[in-house]
Structures are given as C-alpha cells and as structure tokens.
Design brief:
Elements: E1 9-12, H1 15-30, E2 38-43, H2 47-56, E3 62-71, E4 74-82, E5 91-98, H3 102-110, E6 115-121, E7 131-135, E8 140-143, H4 156-161
Parallel strand pairs: 1-8, 2-3, 2-5, 5-6, 6-7
Antiparallel strand pairs: 3-4
Helix pairs in contact: 1-2
Protein name: Phosphoribosyltransferase-like
InterPro entries: PRTase-like, PRTase_dom, Xanthine_Guanine_PRibTrfase
Keywords: Cell membrane, Glycosyltransferase, Magnesium, Membrane, Metal-binding, Purine salvage, Transferase
C-alpha cells in the first residue's frame, strides 16, 4: 500500500516505551540461548533498537543494512543503499517495525539464514519476521520518537465528531 490515507489510527511511541520494548525483545532473544555472530540493524528505524539490544545481549559487532522504502507515510519500492553479504547464519537482524513485509523480504533474501526480530509487527508483515514484541493493526501509523516532538493533540472523541 502506498496511500497515506490508509492509516486510520496513530500509535505514538515514547523514548521510554521504545526502550522498554527493545529490552523486552532482548529478554526474548536471550531466552533462545543463541550465540549471535553480530547484529545487522536495518537503517534507519532499526538503529536505536539495535543499540539497546546490542547492549543488553553484550553484542559488540553491529553492522548496518541500509534500505530506503518510506517517504513520510508512503511506502515505495525498497532501494538497497548498503547491503550486507553473508549467509546470515548466526546474525540477528533488528528493525523497528515490519509493516507490509516488503522491506523484510528484501533483507531476508540478503541474509536468508539470519534471525529477524522487530519491536512492532503488523498483520501483513508478521510472517516475514521470527520474533516481535507488539502487534498493531495494519491501519495504524506508528509514530516513533525520532519522528515526533511533544505537542498538544486533540482528544480522540473530538476528532471522531468532525467526520
């Protein structure tokens, strides 16, 4: 989908919530008892969660996979800016979100043997990742703290009365 009107809901994430969710993901990954070769952070959204997870799992080797597919709320074709060439075995891929799964599929093709983990997953994207923390609706725009600032917002009841 590339229609920015597809989003009926907004789910704002604070820095504190993002940190808690990244730590929860780290606990889940730690329970797998796997010795990770390294983390591959999907830029840009995976950078902050990857930093938290790298700290919590004591992983010191962090790579990036640079892919661009979003312009504000519009998802387009995934463009690989910097690939990571490896079988993926022993790698932990970290991203903030799996939405439709288009970007995840590109990353999966790049590192087929890796374990893919995200903080948030939407129904269309869930089959493309191995582990996630929170599921949100496909019609929900997740507003990450690096894309927002604190300001007044109209109450939900006030917004729905205008329709």
């Amino acid at each position: 989908m590339s229609d920015s009107n597809q989003y009926q809901r907004s789910y704002p994430i604070s820095w504190e919530q993002l940190h808690r969710d990244a730590k929860a993901l780290a606990w889940r990954l730690l329970d797998m008892d796997i010795k990770w070769k390294g983390i591959a952070a999907v830029t840009r959204g995976g950078l902050v969660p990857a930093a938290v997870i790298a700290r919590e799992l004591d992983i010191h080797y962090v790579e990036t996979i640079c892919i661009s597919s979003y312009t504000w709320k519009d998802q387009g074709q995934a463009t690989i800016i910097k690939p990571l060439r490896d079988s993926g075995e022993g790698w932990l891929i970290i991203d903030d979100l799996v939405d439709t799964g288009k970007t995840a599929q590109v990353v999966r093709n790049m590192l087929p043997g890796a374990h893919f983990a995200t903080l948030y997953a939407k129904p269309e994207g869930k089959p493309h990742v191995d582990t996630f923390i929170t599921e949100v609706g496909q019609d929900t725009w997740i507003l990450f703290p690096w894309d927002s600032e604190s300001r007044f917002v109209e109450p939900i009841a006030g917004m729905t009365k205008k329709k």
